[in-house]
Amino acid sequence: MAPITVVEGRRLPISNLEKVLYPATGFTKGEVLHYYATVAEVLLPHLRDRAVSFLRYPDGPDGQVFFTKNVPPGTPDWVTTAEVPRVEGPSRMVLVQDLPSLMWAANLVAEFHTHQWLVDSPDEADRIVFDLDPGAPASIVQCCEVALWLRERLAADGIEAYAKTSGSKGLHLLAAVRGASSERVSEYAKELAVEAEKAMPRLALHRMTRNLRPGKVFVDWSQNAARKTTATPYTLRARPEPTVSAPVTWEEIEECGSPGRLDFHATDIAPRVQDYGDLLAPLLEPGSAGRLP
C-alpha cells in the first residue's frame, strides 16, 4: 500500500518518491512533489477555475507520454470536476482548485495545460496567447525579438502583454482580454501573426509549413482555439531536464543574447518568486483585461 500523507486535511496516497524522473539530473518524483508544493501559491491562481489537461509522463520523459483530458480513474471525490464543452460532446474534466488537488495531480507526474477560458464562461475567452516556436538554427533569442514587436503591437490596441518561457525551446506571450469569443480572439491573433511576418519577413512566420520553418520563429496563433490548451505558468515540462514554463521580465527578454539566459529549471523558480513575486499576477487582476479592436 502506498504511503499516506495529509495535506490540509485531505488524505493522499503517494508513491515512488525515490523514482528518478529526469535521468539527466537525477531529479526524483519526490523532488517534483516538493517543487509543486513550493510554488503552489503562485501556480494555483493560474489553474483555478480552468479545466486541466494532463500530459502525463509517469516513467519520465523517455517513457510513455500521453494526454489525459477526462477525469482519471481513481480521482478522489473531493477533487473538483466540471463538465466542459467538446467538439465530440460534453466531457468531465479536473479543476485544480487547492493545494490538496495540486499535490494529488502532481503525484500523477504530469504537465498542466489549460484553456484560454474559465469553466463558468466557456463561450468567452479571457486570455490571448502567442506560442513563439523557433525553427533551428533560430532559438529563444529570436523569439525575444518577435515578442518585443508583438508587445508593442498589442499595446497599440490597449492590450498589455506578459511573457513566460515555454519550458522547451520557445516563448509564450499572454494577455488578459474580455468581451470576445475564442473564435474572435483566434482571428485577431492570426491578424497580428500575419502582420509580424510582413514586418519581419526574415524572422517571423505565421504558417506552420515545415519547409518554411528553419531559421524563423513560428508565431502560433492557433492556441487560442477554444478546444486547445497551453502549458500553464510554472508547470514542469516532460523534457530531459526539469525545465519550467517560467514567467520572465521584459528586461530579461530585451537582454537575452543566448538561449541559456532564459533556461529555467525547478530549482531556479523559488528564488525567482522570492525576488519578483508572480510576474503574471497582473493577468489575474480585475479590470486588467483589454478589449479587442
UniProtKB/TrEMBL annotation:
<dbReference type="GO" id="GO:0003910">
    <property type="term" value="F:DNA ligase (ATP) activity"/>
</dbReference>
<dbReference type="InterPro" id="IPR033649">
    <property type="entry name" value="MtLigD_Pol-like"/>
</dbReference>
<protein>
    <submittedName>
        <fullName>Non-homologous end-joining DNA ligase</fullName>
        <ecNumber>6.5.1.1</ecNumber>
    </submittedName>
</protein>
<keyword id="KW-0436">Ligase</keyword>
<feature type="domain" description="DNA ligase D polymerase">
    <location>
        <begin position="28"/>
        <end position="279"/>
    </location>
</feature>
<dbReference type="InterPro" id="IPR014145">
    <property type="entry name" value="LigD_pol_dom"/>
</dbReference>
<dbReference type="Pfam" id="PF21686">
    <property type="entry name" value="LigD_Prim-Pol"/>
</dbReference>
<dbReference type="InterPro" id="IPR052171">
    <property type="entry name" value="NHEJ_LigD"/>
</dbReference>
